[in-house]
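Thread amino acids onto this structure.
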């Protein structure tokens, strides 16, 4: 099915002026646009008007108008001939803490023209938002962080334009979704109070802003829709994910989890939404172990262990010699070690079951996952007891976040009609392995729905659907934010979840425990 035409591109035909109708060019255009859009007012930049008189007369008063709006006001972001050879384009941005992804769209047809992704250049300052917020407190720190991300975006826009043949001046709309801290750094807003009780952002609804005011090198008349946030740790990226998943339109309760730097969770249906976020992400992205890394060629993404022979079957992305392991591989590995009896319910290595794969280095037990002769690095890839302990804490945090948000509204996790899993984590994770270690609830596998980069796709929806603009605000206004930092019940449940699969094994009937 072909995409529907974008609501942001309208071709309008104006009655030419006469001696009897000497309405000014701008007034003539705005009258037609207001009728076309059903709008009370349309804003126009003065510099854009300078191009209007000649264009109207060259096109016999038929022009293509690029428009955008926030909750209340429309704005004209570009004008051209209706049959202009160059498309009116838009850029959707997922502003991740670790990775930034862009999608270029033709706003006339809503077709995707290209995609691009790059490592967030702020990684050089710190791997997480906490380190960056502290850096922002230093002299010139906030400006440095802002310049890094704006510069990185402009470079990426230039690259995606080069590969698609689009000119940056043809980009008349940008939508951007990121967590609360990343949004503040993008806007050069003071982030320090986000991490200090009572955890207050500078702004929750940045709204629609001029790209030129932000330093984004696209059309000087372009507007940027910045997705709103709800709390210090519930940002626009999760609102974009809700929008894309359609969770907010379901009758039965469903849950969305997106694992990045944090684990972000929202539960709800068409009547209500409740969300929270917690620090479970880095370990589950692969940061739990010294051989951990983000998914890429040569990275272990799947592990199987024969429970009888305890022979390892390792799969890498691209089927190359292994160089490390990503989050899905770590979860697979832990699940398989437990099911093979090589770790116990506390996540501790069992020497008798590990055999000659077990080594002791400086008093710490290591398990050889890939021998040196099979590794692309020439060194054995191992996981040690401290790695496993960290994974147990991370999986316990994840399950406890899910349990806490569900119990807050009186639901059991097995009542969920669907469980959406976003991000790279969602694309690669094996739900059966995550269930086996007690990280995700023991639901029928068909309820788990991987939805990829839901933040980017939600941002793209804002460029292809006028209704999305209203839905974004409705989602935000209906969502209750649960602050886990001050939730004592969370800590109590967390202690109970630090076993495989859980101290209450009855919650995981599909997991063998003997």
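Threaded sequence (514 positions):
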């Amino acid at each position: 099915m072909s995409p529907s035409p974008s609501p942001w591109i309208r071709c309008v035909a104006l009655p030419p002026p006469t001696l009897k109708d000497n309405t000014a060019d701008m007034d003539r255009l705005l009258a037609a646009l207001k009728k076309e859009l059903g709008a009370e007012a349309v804003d126009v930049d003065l510099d854009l008007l300078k191009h209007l008189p000649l264009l109207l007369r060259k096109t016999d008063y038929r022009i293509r108008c690029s428009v955008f709006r926030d909750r209340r006001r429309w704005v004209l972001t570009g004008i051209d001939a209706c049959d202009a050879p160059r498309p009116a384009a838009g850029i959707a941005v997922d502003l991740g803490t670790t990775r930034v992804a862009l999608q270029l769209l033709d706003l006339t047809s809503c077709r995707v023209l290209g995609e691009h992704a790059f490592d967030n250049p702020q990684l050089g300052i710190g791997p997480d938002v906490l380190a960056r917020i502290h850096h922002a407190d230093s002299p010139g720190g906030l400006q440095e962080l802002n310049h890094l991300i704006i510069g990185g975006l402009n470079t990426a826009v230039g690259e995606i334009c080069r590969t698609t043949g689009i000119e940056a001046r043809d980009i008349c709309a940008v939508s951007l979704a990121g967590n609360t801290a990343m949004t503040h750094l993008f806007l050069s807003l003071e982030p320090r109070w986000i991490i200090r009780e009572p955890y207050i952002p500078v702004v929750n609804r940045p709204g629609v802003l001029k790209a030129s005011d932000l330093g984004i090198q696209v059309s000087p008349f372009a507007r940027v829709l910045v997705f709103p946030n709800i709390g210090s740790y519930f940002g626009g990226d999760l609102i974009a994910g809700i929008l894309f998943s359609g969770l907010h339109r379901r009758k039965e309760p469903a849950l969305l989890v997106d694992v990045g730097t944090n684990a972000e969770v929202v539960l709800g249906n068409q009547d209500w939404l409740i969300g929270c976020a917690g620090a479970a992400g880095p370990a589950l992205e692969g940061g739990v172990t010294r051989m951990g890394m983000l998914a890429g060629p040569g990275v272990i993404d799947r592990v199987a262990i024969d429970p009888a022979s305890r022979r390892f079957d390792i799969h890498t992305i691209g089927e190359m010699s292994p160089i490390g392991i990503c989050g899905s591989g770590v979860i697979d590995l832990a699940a398989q070690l437990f099911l093979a009896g090589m770790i116990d319910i506390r996540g501790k290595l069992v020497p008798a079951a590990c055999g000659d794969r077990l080594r002791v280095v400086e008093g710490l037990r290591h398990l050889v996952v890939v021998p040196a002769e099979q590794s692309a690095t020439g060194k054995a890839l191992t996981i040690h007891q401290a790695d496993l302990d960290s994974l147990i804490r991370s999986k316990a945090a994840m399950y406890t976040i899910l349990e806490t948000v569900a119990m807050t509204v009186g639901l059991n996790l097995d009542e969920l009609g669907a469980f959406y899993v976003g991000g790279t984590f969602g694309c690669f994770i094996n739900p059966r392995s995550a269930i086996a270690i007690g990280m995700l609830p023991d639901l029928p596998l068909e309820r788990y729905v991987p939805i990829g980069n839901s933040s980017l796709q939600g941002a793209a929806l804002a460029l292809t659907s006028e209704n999305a603009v209203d839905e974004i605000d409705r989602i935000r206004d209906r969502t209750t934010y649960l602050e886990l930092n001050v939730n004592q019940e969370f800590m109590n449940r967390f202690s109970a979840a630090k076993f495989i699969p859980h101290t209450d094994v009855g919650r995981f009937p599909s997991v063998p425990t003997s």
